[in-house]
Amino acid sequence: MAAYDRLLRLIVALLMATMVSVAFAQVVLRFVFNQPLTWAEEVARYSFVWVTFLAAAIGLERGIHIGVDLLIGFFPDPLRRTIELATHALVVVTLLVLIYFGFRQSAVNMIQVSPILGLPMGVPYAALPIGGIIMLFGTLRRTRVLLCGPGAGAAP
Q1: Number of domains comprising the chain
Q2: pLDDT confidence of 152, banded at 50, 70, 90?
Q3: Are 91 and 83 in contact (CB under 8 A)?
Q4: Domain that residue 93 falls in
Q5: Separation CA 125–CA 98 (nearest Å)
Q6: 35 in a domain, yes or no?
Q7: Fewest CB within 10 A of the end CB: N or C in the chain?
């Protein structure tokens, strides 16, 4: 599982580096040399879309998303655990909807191409279901840890 986490973080880092360097080059070439890159905006935008969903998966896996846990701290452990399990169940249902409609939207947009790169628009839209699948596995892994204890999340 550690290799998977490292790979996912590497992909996000590479996409971030691509997004920042392309946007920086675009600004320099446009305003200093008056020669803008025609493709830079699309590359930066599509990289941003993928970074958003892949980084959201990393955040969900690590449990670092913003949450309102002020009240849950006052509950006894069994009730707190039940609330956390219910929360995980709601997240799973939401992710299943996201994955289903994300695949549908991605498939519909495969016939449309981006204006500059000529990339099928289903590729940027695929970030939604793929990020959703990664988030789903992360949520299921965290649920297993919640049910079975900290050792349950480790790879067999």
Answers
A1: 1
A2: low
A3: no
A4: 45-153
A5: 12
A6: no
A7: C
